[in-house]
């Protein structure tokens, strides 16, 4: 398999003072999950990802994209005059200039969130950014890639997301919730894997166990069924 494109070590991303990123798409839509679900949001989807989760719904972001200067990205975002901006992927932290982009967005006064898969270091990210970090369940096929050293860097403004494929994933997630006392660190999201787990089943399990988590169903899948640009 070819090497993922934007892994932060491509010389072209560093040729102009760490101010270029490879971008799959920039679009304006409703946030489909996490704390700001339902709010109009500008999404910056960066290209490249070191993970290959079984349920990935953005495989088109693994390769391709176009190189964009930081100023060009900021201009595209400003055209929508948003309050909320989400940097996502792929895996956005696979490109070193992502951190510079996050800070630039915060400096413009946007409410910024970062969606990351949890395999890369989140230390040192601008403290104004709300981090939405996955812990990969066994059903994802990428459980071994979880970087548990990230846990101490989570704050109350952040969120940890578990995408749950079956009962085994649920039990694993419940154990991690207790092991790391995640509800004491940040907000915890349990999300049924679309097309694999009946959301009602997950809701019943959460209620039976009185878990201190927020269940979420991905709004964008209900509205647009994973159509690009939404």
UniProtKB/TrEMBL annotation:
Binds 1 S-adenosyl-L-methionine per subunit. Binds 1 [4Fe-4S] cluster. The cluster is coordinated with 3 cysteines and an exchangeable S-adenosyl-L-methionine. It catalyses: 6-carboxy-5,6,7,8-tetrahydropterin + H(+) = 7-carboxy-7-carbaguanine + NH4(+). It is an enzyme of class 4 (lyase). One of its GO terms (molecular function) is carbon-nitrogen lyase activity. Keywords: 4Fe-4S, Iron, Iron-sulfur, Lyase, Magnesium, Metal-binding, Queuosine biosynthesis, S-adenosyl-L-methionine. S-adenosyl-L-methionine binds at residues 55-57, 90. Its EC number is 4.3.99.3. SUPFAM superfamilies: Radical SAM enzymes (SSF102114). Catalyzes the complex heterocyclic radical-mediated conversion of 6-carboxy-5,6,7,8-tetrahydropterin (CPH4) to 7-carboxy-7-deazaguanine (CDG), a step common to the biosynthetic pathways of all 7-deazapurine-containing compounds. Pathway: Purine metabolism; 7-cyano-7-deazaguanine biosynthesis. Belongs to the radical SAM superfamily. 7-carboxy-7-deazaguanine synthase family. HAMAP family: QueE. [4Fe-4S] cluster binds at residues 49, 53, 56. Homodimer. Mg(2+) binds at residue 58. It comes from the Bacteria. The keyword Iron applies. Its cofactor is S-adenosyl-L-methionine; [4Fe-4S] cluster; Mg(2+). GO terms for biological process: tRNA queuosine(34) biosynthetic process. InterPro entries: 7-CO-7-deazaguanine_synth-like, Aldolase_TIM, rSAM, rSAM_QueE_gams, rSAM_sf. Gene3D superfamilies: Aldolase class I. This is 7-carboxy-7-deazaguanine synthase. Substrate binds at residues 30-32, 45, 88. Residues 36-226 form the Radical SAM core domain.
């Amino acid at each position: 398999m070819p090497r993922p494109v934007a892994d932060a070590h491509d010389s072209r991303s560093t040729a102009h003072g760490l101010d270029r990123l490879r971008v799959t798409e920039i679009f304006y839509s409703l946030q489909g999950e996490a704390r700001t679900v339902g709010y109009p949001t500008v999404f910056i989807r960066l290209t490249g990802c070191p993970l290959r989760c079984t349920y990935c719904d953005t495989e088109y972001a693994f390769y391709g994209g176009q190189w964009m200067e930081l100023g060009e990205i900021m201009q595209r975002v400003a055209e929508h005059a948003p309050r909320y901006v989400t940097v996502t992927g792929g895996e956005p932290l696979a490109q070193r200039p992502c951190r510079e982009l996050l800070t630039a967005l915060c400096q413009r006064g946007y409410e910024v969130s970062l969606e990351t898969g949890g395999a890369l270091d989140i230390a040192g990210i601008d403290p104004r950014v709300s981090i939405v970090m996955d812990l990969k369940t066994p059903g994802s096929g990428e459980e071994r890639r979880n970087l548990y050293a990230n846990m101490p860097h989570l704050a109350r403004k952040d969120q940890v997301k578990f995408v749950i494929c079956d009962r085994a994933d649920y039990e694993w997630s419940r154990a991690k919730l207790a092991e790391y006392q995640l509800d004491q660190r940040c907000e915890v999201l349990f999300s049924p894997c679309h097309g694999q787990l009946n959301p009602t089943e997950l809701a019943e399990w959460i209620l039976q166990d009185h878990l201190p988590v927020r269940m979420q169903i991905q709004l964008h899948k209900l509205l647009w069924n994973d159509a690009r640009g939404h």
